[in-house]
Write a structure and sequence with these properties.
Low-confidence stretches of chain B: none
Helix content of chain B: over 70%
Shape of chain B: extended
Largest sheet of chain C: 6 strands, parallel
Number of strands of chain B: 0
CATH architecture of one domain in chain C: 3-Layer(aba) Sandwich
CATH class of one domain in chain C: Alpha Beta
Helix content of chain C: 40-55%
Radius of gyration of chain B: 25 Å
Oligomer: heterotrimer
CATH topology of one domain in chain C: Rossmann fold
Strand content of chain C: 5-15%
Structural class of chain B: mainly alpha
Strand content of chain B: under 5%
Strand order of the largest sheet of chain C: 7-6-5-8-9-10
Structural class of chain C: alpha/beta
Largest sheet of chain B: none
Shape of chain C: elongated
Order of helices and strands of chain B: HHHHHHH
Chains: A alpha/beta, B mainly alpha, C alpha/beta
Number of strands of chain C: 10
Low-confidence stretches of chain C: 30-62, 72-129, 139-170
Mean pLDDT of chain B: 86
Amino acid sequence: MDGLNVLGLIYVLVFLGLILATSFILRTRESRRLRDIPAFERLGRAIGLAVEAGSRLHISLGRGHLLTTQSAIGFVGLSILDRIARSTSISDRPPVSTSGEGSLGILSQDTQSDAAKYLGVESDPTRGRITGLTPYSYAAGTLSFIQEEDIGANLLIGSFGNEVALITDAAERKEGMTLGGTDNLTGQAVLFATAQEPLIGEETYAGGAYLGAGPMHIASLYAQDILRWVIIGMILIGAVLKLFGVL
Amino acid sequence: MKNPVYTAIAIGVGIVVLLGYFLQIDLLANLRIVLLEWATILVAVALLVGIVNLFVVHFRKSAADQQNRINSIVLIVSMTITLLVAGWFGPTHTYSLWIFNYIQIPIEASLMAILTVMLIYAGIRLLRRKPNLLTIVFIATAVIILLMSGALFGIDIPGLSELRIWIGKVPAVAGARGILLGVSLGIVAAGLRILIGADRPYGGS
Amino acid sequence: MDQISCPSCGKPNSVDNKFCDFCLSALHPESSGEEVFGAPIPPLSGENREGLGGHESDAEAPDWLSELERSKEAEPEESLGTEADEKLPADAVTDWMSEVSEEDEGKPEPDSAAPFLPDQEISDSQEIPHWLNDALIEEESPGSIEDEDLPEIPISSDAPGSSLEDLPVTPFSDETLGDLENAGPLAGLKGILSAEAGAARAKTPKAYSSSLRISSSQRAHIELLTGLVEEEGQPLPLPERKALSQQNVMRWVIGLVLFVAVLWPLVVSSEQMPFPVYDEGSSEVNRLINQLPENARVLVGFDFEPGLAAELEAAADPVINHIMDQGALLTLISTSPNGPILAERFMQSTQSGHQYINGLDYINLGYLPGGAAGLVSFLDNPQGTISFSIDGIPLWETEGGSNVPVLGDIDQVTDYEMVLVMVDDPETARAWIEQLGPRLSDPLELTSLVLITSAQLEPVVRPYYDGIPQMVNGLVVGLRGGAAYARLVGGEDLLSQYWDAFSWGTFVAAMLILVGGLGYYVVPELTRTAKGQDKVEP
């Protein structure tokens, strides 16, 4: 076992320990304060308005491959889908999801059906749709879907490239609210310019915590914040040491 | 409550793959390879399931008396023809390549062209939508990179070429690294939530 | 305890009760209201409400009322939820929804509730509409309205109060029965028609108007209210969507300007734009290819989408040309479903001049599923991962190697002299670099990794090229990188067609964003300022 592997394993174990410790501490506290992310505040209101107006919510899960690092953002999207489906499935027009990858599509249907069972309402497999299996066919399928359905708010949480601009444009033409977050750098740059509420970097991964997906989401968010400051400190120390020729 | 068997399987497989990556133990490493191969096969099958799902959804839409059913009919017809041609002649045959060269590539290239228009349009409106310093930096960077990506009529504006290289090497890379670090933290957090069973994006309730 | 049944509803009651606990009917016929309550029940003023609800009045309240109050206190607040709420699981309402409802709870009751609380004083008349404020003042001093000011509104037979059922019923009493007859045969009786008095006072009865008298301001309020109610019932016409909105016009203009800018150089075959003089990454790729031995084996990854084929094929054309000129044998593979056919198209179109034969000079292994996991598997064990080429040719039938000459004795990825990946996606690029990098980190390892990427990937892949240790040995970024490479090796055919159009396109796009953005921001501001000045100036 080389040094890099040992460091990697230590990093994962420290992260795990931080999550568990934070969740234990948070259980004893009544208030769990999260820093303000305006996009999620507006999302809550947009969901409420969409449900009241009888329009649909659309959660786009992207085309993240489950065997790559893109799977993480796909799982975050599924957590948010699960949360929203459980909150709004009893409305006249339950939420729908679109995905551009086979396994993600299957999981989205499963999530929707699970939420429907939980609420004791009828499940409809077509609420979790696969609209295309390549980036542009996925975008083309999704934009025609947005145009056909009465979508009130669009949540684009998943792995998207620059093709996401096609989706945000279609949403804007339908005058629906668009919140977008992705792990893809190109996609982030495009979302910054085109989405009403873009999420930058790790903000996307905080979606579960802000939408109340469970205490573990909040605990992992705290652990992320702690480790982020540790990394920032290490980078600064490393830069200073390098500047003075120590490293 | 999700089915505890599914949860146990998910956690067990996750731990084996993770430890198999970090620890050089033959048993774990071999088990990890086997599990990854299974996953690869499942993902390939999921691709087929995706195609079937796409077909079924559009078949239902075309069968029902719905608006825009023509789109679904075109999709089903195109899918069937492509499947027959590529399946019968093979994907590298002239006929298959003809479909690819004269239908798929022009469509995707057209979507790219539309994308260009949309991104320019978004860039034009950005300052009005978000009038702040970050937006000004964003637009200025985009304009400099665009200008210096082409030949600019052979005009050499002093410092602009160096500025383009500096942006590409320093701020863009630094920003990308920062975002990727944040993203990687999120990836590890999401993976660990699944590994400890706190997040279960699989069925079986 | 002894019980008696209520004569009205039949439900059992304690024998001590004078009134039924359920329907409040008298249980004993001799009971009367005065015996129980002592006095008529006053109307529910604010004070009386407090008394009923307050604990200090429990001693004076009847038993059933006290019990009712106690049971209300004992009931948890959750029981007040609707049936739908009870059905929902506790966590079906998200925190953000709770926050919204908490915010609502914190807010004061809407003003519309005020008129329904008689004991609540209107504290701030400014919050009341002007016309309603007037009405309240008028109601406080009804005597101030002169009769002659009141126009008459005829009441139709449908109006409330016009039918007999709606009229108030007054019970008979001594006063209502009239005076005592004191003469004649009916002397001593009450309520009879007095013949003599009536005859003596016979005259036309005074005509009482059945019309409602209201003031002009009340009439105005009625009309306003009627208008509001009628408006609610009428559907509002939907705003007409313009066929060509300002946004659509802008999109069309941008599209047309770009189209002309890109098409014109292609139409006139313009080749005026100079190629870039030098690019560090492209020069490094050139050096690595020049060092390739004869019949070197090169693994080429085709990991891009058809939409970006124009950019990547043009950028890769001079590089692959150079590799084929060196006589290298190519293995083509892709982790994207579209990749294998893109590879075939590339070999049959742009590289057709090299006369490479499938299976002999190059082999297309097809699609490698599983993303990064599939890639790891292939890099470690190509023979165990892919068994057939895209054309169905079996690859590993010979003992210890391949029956296909291109593959020879390839056992792992480090058996290739070069790995070249054409990629447009950051995740795919990282997968190749991060999975292949550690396998090439050995200083004795001669395999080099070269990337040809879309321009959008430069920030992602640049650190791997500039970093120490270098994980990417050569880098060609976008058309600019390809053009720089073409200038180095002299293969400018394909790129020369595109370079002018590309240069014009990027220039026009930059100008559109710069000029259009400033115009879009400044013009409305100026218009607004001008309008504001117009308003200020009389």
